[in-house]
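Q: Structure tokens for this one, please.
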Amino acid sequence: MKRSLPRLPNIIERNDLLTPSERRVGQIVGLVAWAIWIYLFTPTIALIGWLLGAELFERHILKDPMGTLEAVQTYVLVILIAGLIFIGWASYNWIRFRNRERRLAPPPLSSQDLARRFGISLADAESIENHRIVTVHFNEGAEILDIVAQDPVPTGIPRPAGVSSSTAEPSSR
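A: Here is the predicted structure, written as tokens:
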């Protein structure tokens, strides 16, 4: 008896793989779904608003629309000024530092510094530096108890019989 796998729908989870029209349809469907969701919960939202003082909103915003408009204009003006200051500062820094790299890499850490920093022997520090796979065991106080260094698995692939050594050697990286 042949066992078939269940049919799974084709789902694209990455928006960058969709065409612009498919993205637009997805956005419209999402907007409609949110509108329906909000419409269904309007009574609950109204109750929460009433409990939190929605009459204050009505009194200060809806009954004085010109005052609200002036406040919104002030907010927009402040946001624009802050944005211009930020863009100006970023432009100044870009002009001043665009071709200069002032950050320097830290100096390499020696085996003695590594051993002193972590409170381990010089042999353990050199073992950490020379092995690709190292397991470090800690105690409850985050102090190093034991270091186990492993040699990596050989990267060469065993040669099949009859193959010369020149064709079976792995390429160097």
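A few notes: The first strand starts at residue 133 and ends at 138. Confidence is low (pLDDT under 50) at residues 163-173.
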